[in-house]
UniProtKB/TrEMBL annotation:
Any Pfam family the entry gives: HemolysinCabind
Any one GO cellular component localisation term in the record: extracellular region
Keyword Lipid metabolism: no
Localization, UniProt: Secreted
Swiss-Prot/TrEMBL keywords: Secreted
PANTHER family for this protein: S-LAYER PROTEIN
GO MF assignments: calcium ion binding
Primary location: secreted
UniProt name for this protein: Calcium-binding protein
Keyword Isomerase in record: no
Length: 289
């Protein structure tokens, strides 16, 4: 095992193929873990840190760090950007966290953070601050926690899983959305893959939807799209309806998009809320043009 220590200047530090401990100290450092299961400490300054091939634990420290991890990454102080890894912790300030390809856990912690899930089944925790949580593909669980958060179960820039122009659909998923304290916005539509606009969860009938676990109509919002367009299909004005949840699914109010397929598509379930207590004309429903 090697212990590698930088200086208070701008250093370039490289680990070995063993299990190393690397300290960047001050300055704007460029650090690579290389092989082995390393511990990397960026220290002060806006550092750029790459984990390498092992299961590394990376601590950004002070400054706006950019961390490319493989296992656990901790941003620390500053507006950090964390990419990849199994567990990502933003720390203080306003951080951006992007998960990798596995089943990952993202923790925004303090500040107004942006968390982006990947292609598998991720868990996203916003914690304090007004956070944006985007689950991406897979069966995700999103927890806004404190603050006025925005939760999206499916990624806005996901590429369709298969199909030709006019028949593209998105990989089915069942996401759990929990806003927590504060006035939260649960979003069920938007720009898809940068070239279409429409509702999420329109692929598998009752097999894909977003489940809102703690909707409070006195302060929370549900955002739905009014138009479906792109991918070579004719523009459609989407109409919605509310009904009791289908048999076998979580109890509550189901939200259906009625005219974007051969039959109504289940978009969302507002859990433990009866259909007669909600109205699409009330202000807690917002419609995106």
């Amino acid at each position: 095992m090697a212990v590698i220590t930088g200086t208070n200047a701008d250093d370039g530090l490289n680990g070995t193929d063993e299990n190393d401990i690397i300290y960047g100290l001050g300055g704007i450092d460029f650090i690579q873990g290389n092989g082995g299961d390393d511990e990397i400490y960026g220290g002060e300054g806006d550092d750029i840190i790459f984990s390498g091939t092992g299961q590394d634990r990376i601590f950004g420290g002070e400054g706006a760090d950019r961390i490319f991890g493989s296992f656990e990454s901790y941003g620390g102080d500053g507006n950090d950007a964390l990419f990849g890894g199994t567990k990502l912790f933003g720390g203080d300030d306003n951080d951006s966290l992007w998960s990798g390809e596995g089943n990952d856990q993202l923790y925004g912690e303090d500040g107004n953070d942006s968390l982006y899930g990947g292609t598998q089944d991720d868990i996203l925790y916003g914690a304090d601050g007004n956070d944006n949580l985007n689950g991406g593909s897979g069966n995700d669980r999103l927890f806004g926690e404190d603050g006025n958060d925005t939760l999206l179960g499916i990624g806005l820039n996901d590429v369709p899983s298969s199909g030709s122009a006019g028949s593209d659909r998105f990989t089915s998923s069942i996401d759990i959305l929990r806003g927590g304290d504060g006035a939260d916005n649960f979003v069920f539509g938007g720009t898809l893959a940068g070239r279409a606009f429409g509702s999420f969860y329109t692929v598998a009938g009752n097999g894909d939807y977003g489940a809102i676990a703690d909707f409070d109509k006195s302060q929370d919002k549900i955002s739905l799209v009014r138009e479906q367009r792109g991918f070579g299909i004719e523009e459609v004005t989407v109409e919605y309806s509310l009904a009791a949840s289908p048999s076998g699914l979580p109890s509550g109010t189901a939200i259906f998009a009625n005219n974007i397929g051969a039959k109504p598509e289940l978009i969302a379930i507002v859990q433990n809320v009866s259909p007669d207590s909600l109205s699409l004309s009330d202000s807690y429903f917002q419609f995106i043009a």
